[in-house]
Specification:
The chain has about 270 residues and is α/β, with parallel strands linked by helices. It is built from 7 helices and 11 strands.
């Protein structure tokens, strides 16, 4: 006699199918068993490597229903064969595979110092090359009026400037007011130094310390955090924790995007 088996499990108790998602580099997922959350950096031999915001990497098997994407279970699968490139740049823009850097525009973006320039390059470098925007640094804003006068901004050569600690009534504020025009835009963030524009959680600290007035701010930060008082090394430590726009404060993100838009408007070629 032929025997039959009957599945008596109610439909609502049966495992529901989950979507299969290619493990593209840059995709951020969570491994629920460990709580480890990170971006995909590669996959091979049935495993996927994730890197968290502190730069720590872990390898996990790509098992069915093995990961959470935006809180929902997914099955990671190997991406289609062929070169795999990130789908997003560090700034969050859509990546353009194979795009060549555009010939530099006449317009420019100036930032206060080398650290500012390095941070902008880290997050917006791909976007700036595609747009043909060059970023230069000033080593302070005291000479900005003369620099703007010499640059002579115009419709085809717009100038954008990013200033630290741009708060009403400050010296920087007065200088910005003096040089801003139809073709020159000065914007800023409220932080004493560009270091503060990096989220403390990304650096692995509870918050940026308060430094008494009259003390060198960067040296005071190193002292308060018990870091070696080598500000160059400290900055490299901070910069190494920045992987994308998610590691920066919104007050900086909006200002840089505003400057890029300003110098790349139609006619500012």
């Amino acid at each position: 006699m032929r025997q039959y088996s009957v599945d008596l499990t109610p439909p609502w108790k049966k495992p529901q199918p989950v979507p299969e998602v290619p493990a593209e580099p840059g995709l951020v997922v969570e491994e629920p068993g460990t709580g480890f959350c990170g971006a995909v950096t590669g996959c091979e031999a049935g495993t996927v490597t994730l890197e968290d915001r502190f730069g720590k990497r872990r390898v996990f098997p790509m098992e069915p229903r093995g990961f959470l994407l935006e809180g929902r279970a997914v099955t990671l699968v190997r991406p289609p064969s062929g070169p795999v490139r990130p789908t997003r740049t560090a700034s969050g823009s859509v990546a353009v595979p194979g795009a060549r850097a555009r010939v530099a525009r006449a317009g420019r973006i100036y930032v206060e110092g080398r650290h500012d320039a390095e941070l902008v390059e880290r997050v917006w470098g791909d976007d700036l090359r595609i747009e043909g925007v060059v970023v230069e640094y000033l080593e302070g804003v005291d000479d900005l009026p003369g620099i703007v006068e010499e640059f002579a901004p115009g419709p085809d050569a717009r100038l954008g400037v990013l200033v630290d600690h741009l708060v009403p009534g400050s010296k920087e504020w007065r200088i910005a007011e003096a040089v801003t025009s139809e073709h020159a835009l000065v914007v800023g963030h409220p932080y004493i130094d560009i270091w503060e524009a990096v989220k403390p959680s990304s650096v692995g600290i509870a918050g940026w310390p308060r430094v008494p007035r009259g003390q060198d701010w960067k040296t005071g930060v190193c002292r308060a955090l018990s870091w070696p008082q080598n500000t160059g090394a400290a900055w490299q430590h901070i910069l190494g924790r920045v992987h994308s726009y998610k590691d920066l404060e919104p007050e900086l993100l909006g200002r840089v995007e505003e400057l890029i838009d300003f110098v790349t408007v139609s006619g500012a070629a």
